[in-house]
Amino acid sequence: MSLAHTAAEYMLSDALLPDRRGSRLKGLRLELPLDKMVKFVSVGFPLLLMSLAFAQEFSSGSPISCFSPSNFSVRQAAYVDSSCWDSLAHHEHNEAGRYKVKSLWPHKALPYSLLALAVAMYLPVLLWQYVAVPSLSSDLLFIISELDKSYNRSIRLVQHMLKIRQKSSDPYVFWDELEKARKERYFEFALLERYLACKQRSHSLVAAYLLRNSLLLLFTSATYLYLGHFHFDVFFQEEFSCSIKTGLLHNETHVPELITCRLTSLSVFQIVSLSSAAIYTILVPVIVYNLTRLCRWDKRLLSIYEMLPAFDLLSRKMLGCPINDLNVILLFLRANISELISFSWLSVLCVLKDTTNQKHNIDTVVDFMTLLAGLEPSKPKHLTQHMCDEQP
């Protein structure tokens, strides 16, 4: 028997999780993978396009080319290019025979509008960082630590039960004490469950998450309106008529009223407009999917941890409407599953529990580990029958 007890002690000591305080939990993921992808694309892509627009402007010189009269000097031709780029207005005759002025300013504002778009898309990220991350970080640190501690407490409890059983000369006394402890619910560690139940009634994290994604959708809609209203209006206009009767050429009688200018950067403008619309169209379903995840529970994670004593959120039907802070925390626990060392152990125990012949007697990790350690998870039938026979 001593050899069996020694083997059981070794098995239980190996099942204990290492205590990694200090260096542990420094790499917490405080953004979900899809949220991080949305952030990088929505902020980084406009900055990339802005770099493309500036690079094109610096490499090819002036973004317009005006067809000045042949008798113009070099100084006058340079002035015409500069004046037309500053005004960037197309003059055309309307049906009444009057000049109609059409502004082409989106071409000039293209790099700066992309910068403004990147800044706007980063605002929801800043909101999340300053409003939700401090609270979420402390919640995750506590919950991950308590989940692993609860698992370790269960293993140490089984170790203690094994020692008591080994020292006990009367098996009836041991099983009576064990059943009493179960009835009095001494095996429960209710702090974690009560904390999670409290988070189920809190809505600060879910409000910040909803606001973050709602702002992303709002800014994306504003981007569509800007591209559709301003960019589409000048999308195909490569040439425009520029009025040069200003400044240096104001009093020149031989200067024509209008000259034709050509936008050399139209292809870049079109590429930026189309790619921006395409990228943000792809991002919209991702953002909507992030919002829909708040409408359902991640019950697989909860069902695994139902092996812990006093963790029965599912069996006691404490899960109601999923739009609360607990659901957000569960999403981030799933993203930080590598920090939950107890998750892999409990997953294995759940699989083994389904294959054992005594699954009806196994409710928690305490029950299963007592079985592996050589103890029955409940009072043996022959002891129960013997107690009944002794009673008059």
**Count of discrete alpha- or pi-helical segments spanning 4 or more residues:** 14
What is the residue-averaged pLDDT? 78
- Spans of at least 5 consecutive residues whose pLDDT stays below 50 are 385-392
The total beta strand count reads 5
Strand order of the largest sheet: 1-5-4
Report the structural category: mainly alpha
* Gyration radius from CA atoms, angstroms: 36 Å
What does the main sheet amount to? 3 strands, antiparallel
Q: Helical amount among residues, as a percent range?
A: 55-70%
Quote the distance from N terminus to C terminus: 34 Å
Describe this structure as you would to a colleague.
This protein is mainly alpha-helical. The protein has helices spanning 2-15, 33-60, 74-87, 105-131, 133-167, 171-183, 190-200, 204-231, 266-292, 299-305, 325-335, 341-355, 365-372, 381-390, and strands at residues 64-66, 89-93, 99-103, 239-243, 258-263. The strands form two sheets. Strands 1-5-4 form a three-stranded antiparallel beta sheet, covered by helices on one side. The longest helix is centred in the middle third of the chain and has 35 residues, at 133-167. It starts with a helix and ends with a helix. The relative contact order is 0.15.
Quickly describe the structure:
The chain has 392 residues and is mainly alpha-helical. It has helices at residues 2-15, 33-60, 74-87, 105-131, 133-167, 171-183, 190-200, 204-231, 266-292, 299-305, 325-335, 341-355, 365-372, 381-390, and strands at 64-66, 89-93, 99-103, 239-243, 258-263. The radius of gyration is 36 Å and the shape is rod-shaped.
